[in-house]
Amino acid sequence: MDLILWRHADAEYGVDDLARPLTPKGVKQAKKVAAWLRRQLKDVAGYRLIASEAVRSQATAQYLNPQYEINPKLNPGCHNACYLEAARWPRDIGKFVVIVGHQPNLGEVASLLVTGKELDWNTRKGGIWWIQRRVMDDGRVKYVLKAALSPDLL
After folding, report:
1. How far is 129 from 131, CA to CA, in rounded Å?
2. Calculated CA dihedral for residues 34, 40, 45, 47, nearest 10 degrees
3. Where would a tag sit more exposed on the chain, N or C end, judged by fewer CB atoms within 10 A?
4. What residue stretch is flagged as signal peptide (predicted)?
């Protein structure tokens, strides 16, 4: 199973938290990362794309695919377990899931999967963590950080 944790792109301040739209910079970030993700996922049949109820999360997701799920459990302030539940991690073996969410949850979930501990990992707005779950021949499970990417690198 592959899980891509994508932080929403740069958003405006000063309005209701869930209603914050992307800034012009955020639109550029979302477009860049979405284009990169489309190239990576072009041979993947049927990945799931999930966004929170926040306008900035949905606006980021729509640049990858206008058809996405909205899950209120991913809203700012949620528990980290909600991210794994939304992804059905690790039950959906062989599936690709992209979650467009928020800090600090994204970094904490990424660190939990990679290190086994919830650490204060951060990523830039519009950045991703791509984590792959692999089952070895002897049955052991490994979590591999396949990519960590910032829009600035594209």
Report:
1. 6
2. -50
3. C
4. none
Query: By mean pLDDT, which of 43-47, 76-80, 119-123 is the weakest?
Result: 43-47
DSSP 3-state of 142: strand
pTM of the predicted model as reported, rounded to 2 decimal places: 0.94
- Asked if 103 contacts 77 with a C-beta cutoff of 8 angstroms, the reply is no
C-alpha to C-alpha distances, 6 to 3, 37, 135, 139, nearest whole angstrom: 10, 10, 24, 29
Q: Which residues contact 79 (CB under 8 A, 6 or more apart)?
A: none
Separation of alpha carbons 78 and 57, rounded Å: 14
Q: Give residue 16's region: left, alpha or beta (phi > 0; psi -120 to 50).
A: beta
Supply the pLDDT for residue 91: 78
Residue 40 CA, distance from chain mean position:
14
**pLDDT for the residue 124:** 95
Q: Quick one: pLDDT at residue 44?
A: 85
Which sequence spans correspond to the domains of the chain?
Answer: 2-153
Separation of alpha carbons 62 and 98, rounded Å: 12
